Amino acid sequence: MKKTLEFRAHDGEIEDIALGPDNKVVTAGRDFQCCVWQQDQLVTGLRWHENLPGIPDKAYRYQACRDSGTFLGLGTVTGSVAIHIAFSLQRLYYVKEAHGIVVTDVAFVPESRPGRELLGGHEAALLSVAVDSRCKLHLLPTRRSLPVWLLLLLCAGLIVATILLLQLTFPGFL
User: Fold this and answer.
1) Quick check: 50 and 89 in contact, CB under 8 A?
2) How far apart are alpha carbons 140 and 121 in whole angstroms?
3) Coil, strand or helix at 11
4) Same domain, 109 and 166
5) What is the pLDDT along the chain (174 residues), one digit of tens a residue?
6) What separation in angstroms does the CA of 168 have from each of 154, 157, 158, 161?
7) Is there a single domain that holds both residue 93 and residue 169?
8) What contacts 43, CB < 8 A, 6 or more positions away?
9) Are residues 58 and 109 in the same domain?
10) Could you tell me which of 96, 95, 97, 70 has the C-alpha nearest to residue 84?
11) What pTM does this model have?
12) One domain, residues 156 and 84
């Protein structure tokens, strides 16, 4: 093996590291941060005071991380579990104290046939393991969105309403 890149990712020890798509790397450090890197450049990061206002930094720390390509799964030293969108780090799922103590690892259920059976109608499934000797399955509900036909219908209605409003405001417009 040959080292290809070296950079300072965190102040202190790195608790966990995960490889993501597009050569991105996710790190969870003892400095209370979780970071997404592209080579040696910080793409985005999470800090407790920004992610969970009102909870002091020193009370919690990211312990385990996994990046499925679409989602980032995180576990903490207090037993909490979260799922974020990988590219924006928007939080989609959070369970405070899902375990009684430190989450030692998290893993997404693979997209295999048995994995899809576990998913059911959910968008993702994350397994968490903790020092409390428990393994828990966290299911991310499928996010709702508007059907394309409804969006097109709304756009057409907006165009018709705009034309009618212009005709009423400026008689002889058409």
Assistant:
1) no
2) 9
3) coil
4) no
5) 898 889 999 998 999 998 887 888 899 988 888 898 998 999 988 876 565 556 655 556 788 888 887 899 999 888 899 999 887 888 899 998 899 889 999 999 887 888 888 888 888 899 999 999 999 999 998 877 777 888 889 999 999 999 888 888 888 767
6) 21, 16, 15, 11
7) no
8) 24, 35, 36, 37
9) yes
10) 70
11) 0.72
12) no
Number of C-beta neighbours around residue 45 at 10 A? 17
Q: What is the CATH number of the domain that holds 31?
A: 2.130.10.10
What residues make up the domain containing 151? Answer: 145-173
Based on the structure, what is the number of domains in the chain? 2
Query: Does 159 lie in the same domain as 121?
Result: no
* pLDDT score at 70: 85
Claim to verify: residue 119 and residue 33 sit in the same structural domain = yes
Alpha-carbon distance 109 to 14, whole Å?
24
Residue the block writes with tokens 């989609």: 92
DSSP 90-156: -EEEEETTSSSS-EEEEEEPPSSHHHHHHHTT-SEEEEEEETTS-EEEEEEPPPP---HHHHHHHHH
